């Protein structure tokens, strides 16, 4: 099917609908052509008859009540009958429309409808979408249904056409989780991570029992969140493990996520569980076990680094709590009192603060530059200060309206500090 056949079909259907509406509009005229040659307009006569009956009823009531005598009643009744007869003699013939008037309406209704459709807005994107579907619509469907793994060369001459056709195809089959899954793969190949996660979330909602979809969704969310397991990813992985406790991919993600969240004991627990599962399988798994041992050693090293860091307790003054918004971001950092880049810093969602308080660990694991660490600063006897700020925009630099606290100076040996956010930046 070409673009011309698609447009032709659209125009034909539009004209058909317009003609049907036109026929409905002029149906009274069509009926009028089958009535007598000079039909009469009886509307006025019907009104006069109704008025006559009301007046006659009023006269009868007055007579029965004794308001008027029988002679007056008869005279008034004769007068009403005479007026009704006069009204019957005055008739107004209806003017039936001619064939010319009917043709004008029949032709102009579809013409005006088509002109309105074309002139109301720019239809170029619609025509481009039709062209894409005509050219690569079948290729898009084959890709999304797994019939082919790679599109032919001619189909990717215009990549935007293939992308549009695939998106349209998926929305037409919005209840198919496999199509959403393959669409996410397309977005990942284009480095559109947010769109890929959205497509995976739809696939997961449609098929929450599909382990491949669930683990892929959790994995992409994990790496998009810079190695952090958010509440949603953790829930997805826990559901997978509840149904399949030996799922290796889910166990590895849990181990990495717990380590990144500084839950080192839990991370080591997942690594041991995964190692035991692999060691119990027949065959040679030397490389896999060695990788797990290396990961365990890295977690131990991270735990050691974290133990040399600083535990920061951040509190928010009660008077400022109403100013905190759901999409705000909490920044906590340790820097030189004289300024410069921080030695350790974290950017956290505001929901880490519970009931106006949060505990945050800062260490060399949170160093922004490999050569600028908290350990090196302490060795050089640098005077350190801890700062905390709530940003409304999410940017690292302070802006008007942000909430902050006074920097708290700490000693080289200090590993615990309290910071209160108690002011708004003017």
Task: Tell me what you see in this structure.
There is one protein chain. The protein has helices at residues 3-32, 43-65, 70-89, 99-120, 124-144, 159-172, 177-189, 193-206, 211-224, 231-243, 248-260, 264-279, 286-307, 374-379, and strands spanning 40-41, 92-93, 310-316, 329-336, 344-349, 357-362, 384-391, 403-404, 408-410, 416-421, 423-424. With 426 residues, the protein is an alpha+beta fold. Strands 4, 5, 7, 8, 9 and 11 form a 6-stranded antiparallel sheet that branches. It has a 3-stranded mixed sheet with strand order 6-3-10, with no helix packed on it. Strand 4 and strand 5 (344-349) form a beta hairpin. The longest helix is centred in the N-terminal third of the chain and has 30 residues, at 3-32.
Quick overview of this protein structure:
With 426 residues, the chain is α+β, with helices and mostly antiparallel strands. It is built from 14 helices and eleven strands.
Let me know the largest β-sheet: 6 strands, antiparallel
Rg calc: 40 Å
Structural class: alpha+beta
So how many helices?
14
- Uncertain segments: 35-41
What is the first-to-last residue Cα distance? 64 Å
The count of DSSP E runs of length 2 or more, i.e. the number of strands, is 11
